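hey
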């Protein structure tokens, strides 16, 4: 686990003030999350159903398609299927993918990468 580090440098001017330097620098660890979403059917057909549902979710919700949607489609079609689950990397638990899975009744769970 990466540690969080804080370095403080204070800049002050004048004779009556301390001439210390403090700078705030934080190294925060970024932990990717893993969304494990169960396909409604196994194999390529299940992936296509997931992508159709995802596209429908955007259209019916009057949401804008993300600019990286074609990349997302290629990623979904190329992911390994583990016991009917796809493991998709997400940045946080409030991801649009989690909202989609909840709205469309997909079975899912979220894990943190080690």
């Amino acid at each position: 686990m990466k540690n969080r580090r804080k370095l403080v440098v204070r800049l002050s001017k004048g004779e009556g003030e301390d001439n210390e330097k403090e700078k705030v620098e934080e190294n925060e660890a970024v932990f990717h999350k893993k969304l494990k979403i169960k396909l409604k059917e196994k194999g390529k057909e299940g992936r296509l159903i997931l992508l159709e549902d995802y596209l429908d979710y955007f259209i019916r919700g009057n949401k804008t398609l993300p600019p990286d949607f074609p990349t997302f489609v290629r990623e979904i079609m190329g992911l390994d299927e583990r016991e009917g689950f796809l493991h998709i990397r997400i940045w946080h638990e409030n991801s649009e993918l989690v909202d989609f899975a909840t709205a469309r009744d997909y079975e899912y769970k979220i894990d943190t990468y080690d």
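Residues 43-60 form the longest helix (18 residues). Helices lie at 43-60, 69-78, 96-103.
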